[in-house]
C-alpha cells in the first residue's frame, strides 16, 4: 500500500490505519492521527480502512508558545 | 493640560467615553479588590475554566537552549500552565515522546496550541488531535491571518471557537484587542480572552495600551490574559497593573541570555504588577504636584 505519511510517500503493508501505525512503529507512541485531513480518534483506527494514495498525518507533543 | 472646570464638576472626564468606562470599571472593581486584599496578598487564586491557579504566568516551551534549561526555567517561573504544540512525529527519532516525558515530569497543566494554522479546518482538526493526545479540553486557539505580523484571522477565529466550544472544548482564543471580536468570542462560548500585546515573538510589549485598557474595562468579569509580544518583565508588570488576569509569553524567556533567571524575573514582575493593581495605582496627571508640603517652607531670601 502506498501511503503519504507526514508528507512522505511510503510503502506501508496495512489495510487499516491501526495496522499502518503498527508497521510504521508507532504502536505504543503517544500520537494523534488524521486521514486525508480529517481527525481519526485512536479508538476508530482499527475500523478505518486505508487505500493507495491516502494521506496520513501522525503528530505528537512538541515545543510550543 | 488642566481640565476645564464646569458646573458638573467632571465634564472633561464625561466627555471621554473610555475614561468613563474605565472609571466605572475601577469603581466596580474596588469592592472585589477590597475583598481580595482582605484575605490574601499579593496573589490569590484565579480560575480559568474551573481550574484554580495561583501563578498568573503562562509559559511557552519553545526555543530554549536545551530541554534541561526549559525544565529549570519553567520551575523558576512558578508557571502552572505550559503551552505546547503538536507536530509531525518521526518514527525514527520519536522526539515528541521524549518531549512529552519532560513536560510530564515538570508536572503542571498543559495548554496545547494550534500555532501555524491558517484556516478554521486546520485549527479545528489540530484541536481535536490535541484533545486526544493531552486528554484535556483546553486549547489555545490560533487562526493566523497574516504571515508578517502573525495577526489572528479574527473571522476564522470566531468560527473555529464556535465549532470547538460546541464540541466541548475550553477555548483560549489568541485574539486582538478588538471589542467587537471579543464580544463575538464570548457569544460563541469563550470564557477567557487572550489579546495580543504585540506580534508574536516581537518583544515590543503592549502595543495598544488604549485598546487593552478598553478591553479590560469592557469585560470586567472575563479572565483576560495578554498573550504574545511581551519582551520584558516591565511589559508583563504593565499588563498586570492594567488589571489583566495573567500573561502568556515564551520568547522573552527562552531567548534571554539566562532563561532561568529571566523566568524568575517574569514571575516576580507579574506578582508585583498584580499587587500594584490590587493596591490601586494613582491616576497620572499632566502637571507637577509637589509631594513635599508647601506650607511651612522656611523663607530663606
Query: In angstroms, what is the radius of gyration of chain B?
Result: 21 Å
**Strand tally of chain B:** 12
Rounded mean pLDDT of chain A is 95
Largest interface: A-B, 25 and 39 residues
Strand/helix succession of chain A:
EEHEEE
Strand content of chain A: 35-45%
How would you describe this protein?
Chain A is mainly β and 65 residues long. Chain A is globular. Chain A contains 1 helix and 5 strands; from the N terminus they run ββαβββ. In chain A, a hairpin with a 2-residue loop joins strand 3 (32-35) and strand 4 (38-40). In chain A, strands 2-1-5-3-4 form a 5-stranded mixed beta sheet, with no helix packed on it. Chain B is α/β, with parallel strands linked by helices and 301 residues long. Chain B has helices spanning 11-14, 17-39, 67-77, 95-106, 120-134, 154-166, 179-187, 209-218, 233-241, 251-254, 259-279; strands at residues 46-48, 51-53, 57-60, 81-88, 109-112, 138-141, 144-146, 151-152, 170-175, 194-195, 225-227, 246-249. Chain B has a 5-stranded parallel beta sheet with strand order 5-4-3-12-11. In chain B, strands 6-9-10 form a 3-stranded parallel beta sheet. The radius of gyration of chain B is 21 Å and the shape is globular. The two termini of chain B are 31 Å apart. In chain B, 42% of the residues are buried. Residues 1-14 and 37-43 of chain B have low confidence and may be disordered. Strand 5 (55-63) of chain A pairs antiparallel with strand 4 (81-88) of chain B.
Amino acid at each position: 500500500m502506498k501511503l503519504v505519511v507526514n508528507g512522505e510517500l511510503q510503502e506501508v503493508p496495512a489495510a487499516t490505519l491501526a495496522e499502518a501505525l503498527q508497521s510504521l512503529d508507532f504502536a505504543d507512541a503517544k500520537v494523534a492521527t488524521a486521514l486525508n485531513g480529517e481527525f481519526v480518534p485512536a479508538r476508530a483506527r482499527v475500523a478505518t480502512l486505508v487505500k493507495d494514495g491516502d494521506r496520513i498525518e501522525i503528530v505528537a507533543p512538541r515545543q510550543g508558545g | 493640560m488642566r481640565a476645564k472646570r464646569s458646573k458638573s464638576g467632571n465634564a472633561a472626564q464625561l466627555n471621554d467615553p473610555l475614561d468613563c468606562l474605565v472609571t466605572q470599571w475601577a469603581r466596580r472593581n474596588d469592592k472585589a479588590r477590597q475583598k481580595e486584599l482582605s484575605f490574601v496578598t499579593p496573589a490569590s487564586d484565579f480560575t480559568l475554566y474551573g481550574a484554580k491557579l495561583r501563578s498568573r504566568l503562562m509559559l511557552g516551551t519553545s526555543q530554549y537552549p536545551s530541554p534541561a534549561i526549559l525544565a529549570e526555567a519553567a520551575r523558576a517561573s512558578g508557571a502552572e500552565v505550559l503551552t505546547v504544540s503538536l507536530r509531525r512525529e518521526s518514527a525514527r527519532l520519536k522526539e515528541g515522546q521524549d518531549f512529552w516525558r519532560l513536560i510530564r515530569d515538570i508536572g503542571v497543566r498543559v495548554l496545547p496550541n494550534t500555532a501555524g494554522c491558517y484556516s478554521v479546518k486546520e485549527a479545528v482538526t489540530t484541536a481535536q488531535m490535541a484533545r486526544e493526545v493531552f486528554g484535556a479540553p483546553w486549547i489555545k486557539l490560533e487562526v493566523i491571518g497574516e504571515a508578517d505580523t502573525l495577526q489572528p484571522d479574527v473571522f476564522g477565529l470566531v468560527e473555529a471557537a464556535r465549532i470547538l466550544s460546541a464540541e466541548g472544548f475550553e477555548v483560549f482564543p489568541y485574539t486582538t484587542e478588538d471589542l467587537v471580536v471579543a464580544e463575538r468570542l464570548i457569544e460563541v462560548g469563550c470564557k477567557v480572552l487572550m489579546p495580543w500585546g504585540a506580534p508574536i515573538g516581537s518583544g515590543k510589549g503592549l502595543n495598544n495600551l488604549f485598546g487593552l485598557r478598553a478591553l479590560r474595562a469592557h469585560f470586567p468579569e472575563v479572565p483576560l490574559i495578554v498573550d504574545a509580544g511581551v519582551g520584558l518583565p516591565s511589559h508583563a508588570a504593565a499588563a498586570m497593573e492594567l488589571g489583566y488576569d495573567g500573561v502568556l509569553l515564551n520568547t522573552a524567556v527562552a531567548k534571554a541570555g539566562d532563561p532561568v533567571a529571566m523566568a524568575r524575573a517574569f514571575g516576580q514582575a507579574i506578582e508585583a504588577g498584580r499587587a500594584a493593581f490590587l493596591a490601586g495605582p494613582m491616576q497620572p496627571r499632566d502637571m507637577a504636584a509637589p509631594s513635599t508640603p508647601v506650607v511651612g517652607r522656611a523663607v530663606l531670601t
